[in-house]
């Protein structure tokens, strides 16, 4: 009681919900929010051990301020990416599958919108489709993520987001836009359009639309196999910052390493490693740029954790490092049985041996095919075969992941309610500490900027 009375007499007080900033703390000019989709402590630990060994560290681990973050949605202990992204964007909980709206369907400005209203430049980049859950949460509002990507593409361009980069070219094409060509319309409205790495590196202009794949951008592990001409996340981040920083008033950038989540869904430990390292390289670039700038806040977080990934003691790191392709690519090489959802035994055995150096038994192959024939999996059914192969490879290499049975029962395809880590660097980063709710993150950004949601 005495301590509280002294604090009141001295005019110190206690900030409500830890969101108020000290009056003497000057806010940043720029904010870069880096989101590793599905990236929990386990994914970070897998990447650290596989890249550097037990005595090494990822770059993001060196940032000076850290926190843990709860990620539940309005209607579920376990969030999906739509509700998770929305919480990070608008500072409010919503139901799973909803983007940029509250549970009653009301649209709300995102933190990106607040920056734009203040005259700052804005951008979102992702290795997912640019119209998918996380980038969409900052740039659009739709009641359901599964039926709204065409509408999201229209809203993103109508909202004049200065930089949009990722996959999802198909959603901007006439075939999905009732004859409208959104790419041509964007060019007429001042956007420079690029479709591959070389075009990106040479791009000029004050607004940029980069669409590097019809769907998701390729996994890093598969890019050589597919002859990919896509840029890395670091290259996208570098170009985005270059475009956005042209205006002295400042900018907001959200950059997502999305395929960490996709690799985790499949139990693809090799790609968890590769995708997390690619994300970490982008973080390094952003932080080093912020150090030189001196007026920038960089936050590194996630929307949720996926598949309960853990660095198990018997994990066969050396074998996992030699895997040459993702489960998704391997399945694309299988030969299907005629008039069936299953695959020919010989092709499965040959492909898994070639790319994963595993000799599957006839019993394992039969169990895999039987599961495909009898599964009623409703979440991403097109990836069921890849997820099953990934889980099988993870089990053979003693990986710590949720079982395929638990994944099949999950409405999110294997997300968990585990807290995620947050790392912060730069101007205002000291307010990000302790145990937070995901909605606190945009609220704290807004407080630092002296913005208020209406």
Task: Explain what you see.
This protein has about 450 residues and is α/β, with parallel strands linked by helices. It folds into 2 domains: about 30-310 and about 415-450, Alkaline Phosphatase, subunit A; about 315-400. The chain contains 19 helices and 12 strands. The strands form 2 sheets. It has a 10-stranded mixed β-sheet with strand order 5-6-4-3-7-1-8-11-2-12, with helices on both faces. A two-stranded antiparallel ribbon has the order 9-10. Helix 2 (about 40-50) crosses helix 12 (about 270-295). It is globular and about 65 Å long. The model is unreliable at about 1-20 (pLDDT under 50).
Distance between the termini: 36 Å
Counting helices, strands and paired strands, the structural category is: alpha/beta
Beta-strand residue percentage: 5-15%
How many domain regions? 2
Rg over CA atoms, rounded to whole Å, is: 22 Å
GO molecular function: alkaline phosphatase activity; metal ion binding
InterPro entries: Alkaline_phosphatase, Alkaline_phosphatase_AS, Alkaline_phosphatase_core_sf
Cofactor: Zn(2+); Mg(2+)
Keywords: Hydrolase, Magnesium, Metal-binding, Phosphoprotein, Zinc
Give a brief description:
With 454 residues, this protein is of the alpha/beta class. The protein contains 19 helices and twelve strands. The two termini are 36 Å apart.
């Amino acid at each position: 009681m005495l301590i509280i009375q002294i604090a009141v007499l001295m005019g110190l007080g206690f900030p409500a919900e830890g969101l108020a900033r000290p009056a003497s703390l000057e806010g940043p000019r720029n904010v870069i929010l880096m989101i590793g989709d599905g990236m929990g402590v386990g994914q970070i630990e897998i990447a650290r051990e596989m890249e550097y060994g037990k005595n090494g560290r990822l770059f993001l681990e060196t940032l000076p301020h850290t926190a843990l973050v709860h990620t539940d949605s309005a209607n579920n202990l376990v969030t999906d990416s739509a509700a998770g992204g929305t919480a990070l964007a608008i500072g409010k909980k919503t139901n799973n599958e909803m983007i940029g709206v509250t549970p009653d369907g009301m649209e709300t400005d995102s933190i990106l919108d607040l920056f734009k209203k203040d005259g700052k430049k804005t951008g979102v980049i992702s290795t997912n489709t640019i119209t998918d859950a996380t980038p969409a949460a900052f740039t659009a509002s739709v009641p359901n993520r599964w039926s709204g990507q065409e509408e999201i593409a229209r809203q993103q361009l109508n909202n004049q987001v200065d930089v949009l980069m990722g996959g999802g070219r198909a959603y901007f094409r006439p075939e999905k836009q009732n004859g409208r060509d959104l790419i041509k319309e964007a060019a007429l409205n001042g956007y420079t359009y690029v479709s591959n790495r070389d075009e990106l590196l040479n791009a000029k202009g004050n607004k940029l639309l980069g669409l590097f794949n019809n769907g998701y951008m390729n996994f890093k592990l598969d890019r050589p196999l597919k002859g990919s001409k896509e840029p890395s996340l670091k290259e996208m981040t570098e170009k985005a910052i270059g475009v956005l920083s042209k205006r002295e008033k400042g900018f907001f950038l959200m950059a997502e390493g999305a395929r960490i989540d996709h690799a985790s869904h499949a139990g693809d430990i090799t790609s968890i490693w590769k995708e997390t390292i690619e994300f970490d390289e982008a973080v390094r670039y952003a932080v080093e740029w912020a150090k030189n700038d001196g007026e920038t806040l960089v936050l590194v977080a996630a929307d949720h954790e996926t598949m309960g990934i853990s660095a198990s003691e018997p994990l066969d790191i050396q074998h996992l490092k030699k895997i040459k392709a993702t489960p998704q690519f391997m399945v694309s090489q299988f030969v299907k049985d005629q008039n069936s959802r299953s695959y020919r035994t010989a092709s499965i055995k040959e492909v898994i041996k070639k790319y994963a150096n595993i000799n599957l038994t006839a019993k394992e192959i039969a169990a895999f095919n039987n599961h495909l024939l009898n599964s009623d999996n409703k979440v991403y059914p097109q990836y069921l075969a890849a997820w099953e192969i990934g889980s099988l490879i993870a089990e053979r290499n003693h990986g710590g992941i949720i079982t395929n049975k638990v994944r099949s029962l999950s409405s999110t395809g294997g997300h968990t309610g585990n807290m995620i880590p947050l790392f912060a660097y730069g101007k205002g980063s000291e307010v990000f500490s302790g145990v937070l709710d995901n909605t606190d993150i945009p609220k704290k950004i807004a407080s630092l900027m002296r913005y208020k949601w209406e």
